[in-house]
Every structure is written in C-alpha cells, then in structure tokens.
C-alpha cells in the first residue's frame, strides 16, 4: 500500500468526494496543514526565548552593573559573667521563736459511775440486755462510740450522742424471669377467658378509629411467682394510641396462675397479641 500524505490536497479531495464541500469541515481540513505549521513555529520560538532570555539577562548584569559588596556582620565575644554568690547553710539565721507543742488530747466521753441496787429495786428497763435481745429489738441500735481515757470535768456523756449506726436491711435480689418453664403461667379460665377479657375491657381509641388505623399489637409482660403482671412492654406496635391502650388492658388483668419449674413458682415471660379491628 502506497504511503498517503494526510496533509495533502489529494487526501482532502478524496475524503470529501461526493460530499458537500460548502460545509465548514472542508475548509478546516483544507487549512489544517497551514495551522499546524504555524503552531509548531510559535512553540519553537517560545521555547527558545524561555531558555535564552535568562542567560542574556545574567550576561548583561555582569557586563554593565558593578559587583555589590557583601555586608559583613561583626560577631563580638561575650564577656564572662561573674559567678553567683552561694550562701552556705551555716549563714542562715535560726528561728528565734519555737513552735509550741499541741495541747494534750482529752477524752470526749464522760465515765458514769455505776449505781449498785438490790435485785428487787431494778426494773426491766434498767437491766442490761444481751446482744441477742438487742438484735431482736428493732428500736435499739448499738453505738460504735470508742471510749478512750476518762475526763470527769471536760468529758461528755455517751447518752448525749444521738448518732448511731443501724444495720442495713438486706437487699432483695430481683429474680430473672424464665423464657419457658415446665408449667407455663395461665389466665384464670384459660386462653378463651383471656381473649374475652381483652375484648370486653378494650376501648378503641377515637383518634385511631377516625383515621382508620387498625392492626395487631404484640405485648410482652412478666407473670411473677405470685401471679402479678409486671414489666409490660410492646414488642411490635401499630400506632401510639393503640399501643397505649393495649398496655393499659394488659396491666388491668387480674392475677394469673403462676408458672412452675421443679415444683416451685417462678417468674415467666408471656407474650399476648392484642387485635384492633374496625367493624
């Protein structure tokens, strides 16, 4: 295949053979070689000037401008500073006044001398109680006051100290409810009685009825080991008004028959669907 010059007029005529040459593309392709040559010349000139102008400027400065003298800064040596005077510890003056010692500590508890009486003269209130008898009486608390020493003049009677320490009541640990047990809790009368109770006591919220909202609310609660309803929560709701009404109905239920595990009453989780349907 012969080489074809893409910038020649023969190639341009071949490309636009049988086409409209009055269109602007024909004129652009016809003048394309000229534009390319002009662009290459401009690029070469600009590159040549960019490399030669800085060299010409430096040569002109060296020939016609006198050399500048560099400014020299004189560095002066610092003189040695005199050594600081250090006072010895011996030159420090001792304290003229001595700190007085603290006063001796005195007992804050006054000793009450015992009174000797006959057995028939001693009442039950004045008798010394044992530790077991004191522990059984809730109104009596044992003081933790520590008697050290004796000061009849400045002491205080132990009866004047009102602050006593009472033993803390044992905290009841909350029982963790079971998910499933041997005998699940049951509403009195069975599941049919449970559905009947919910239908009779449920009040359809007016705002939900006006907006045509209906659906099923899944409620979970705990039946305690005494049969009480506790910790009522909504697992899957429909609308806030319907959810609140479902929680209210579940809380109003009477006591259930508690669940059993190994023959003992235990707390168990229970789930009930509450259906809201418009007629």
Description:
With 279 residues, the chain is an alpha+beta fold. Helix content is 29%, strand content 11%. The protein is built from six helices and five strands. Strands 2-1-5 form a three-stranded antiparallel beta sheet, covered by helices on one side. The chain has a two-stranded antiparallel sheet with strand order 3-4. A hairpin with a 2-residue loop joins strand 3 (259-261) and strand 4. The radius of gyration is 54 Å and the shape is elongated. The relative contact order is 0.09.
Distance between the termini: 91 Å
Described by strand count, sense and barrel closure, the largest sheet is: 3 strands, antiparallel
- Strand percent estimate: 5-15%
Report the C-alpha radius of gyration, rounded.
54 Å
Strand order of the largest sheet: 2-1-5
Show unreliable segments: none
Helical segment count:
6
Class based on secondary structure composition and strand pairing: alpha+beta
Overall mean pLDDT stands at 76
Q: Could you estimate the helical fraction of the residues in percent?
A: 25-40%
Task: Name the overall outline.
Answer: elongated
* Beta strand count: 5
């Amino acid at each position: 295949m012969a080489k074809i010059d893409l910038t020649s007029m023969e190639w341009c005529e071949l490309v636009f053979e049988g086409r409209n040459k009055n269109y602007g593309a024909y004129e652009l392709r016809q003048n394309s070689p000229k534009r390319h040559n002009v662009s290459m010349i401009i690029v070469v000139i600009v590159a040549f000037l960019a490399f030669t102008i800085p060299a010409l400027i430096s040569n002109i400065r060296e020939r016609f401008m006198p050399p500048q003298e560099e400014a020299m800064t004189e560095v002066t040596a610092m003189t040695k500073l005199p050594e600081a005077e250090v006072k010895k510890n011996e030159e420090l003056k001792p304290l003229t006044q001595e700190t007085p010692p603290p006063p001796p500590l005195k007992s804050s508890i006054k000793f009450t001398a015992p009174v000797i009486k006959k057995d028939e003269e001693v009442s039950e209130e004045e008798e010394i109680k044992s530790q077991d008898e004191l522990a059984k009486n809730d109104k009596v608390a044992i003081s933790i006051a520590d008697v050290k020493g004796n000061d009849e003049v400045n002491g205080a009677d132990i009866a004047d100290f009102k602050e006593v320490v009472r033993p803390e009541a044992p905290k009841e640990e909350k029982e963790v409810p079971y998910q499933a047990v041997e005998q699940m809790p049951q509403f009195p009368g069975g599941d049919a009685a449970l559905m009947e109770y919910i239908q009779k006591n449920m009040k359809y919220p007016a705002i939900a009825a006006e907006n045509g909202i209906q659906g099923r609310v899944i409620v979970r609660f705990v039946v305690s080991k005494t049969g009480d309803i506790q910790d009522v929560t909504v697992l899957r709701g429909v609308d806030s008004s319907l959810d609140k009404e479902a929680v209210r109905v579940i809380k109003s239920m009477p006591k259930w028959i508690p669940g059993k595990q190994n023959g003992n009453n235990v707390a168990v989780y229970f789930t009930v669907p509450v259906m809201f349907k418009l007629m």
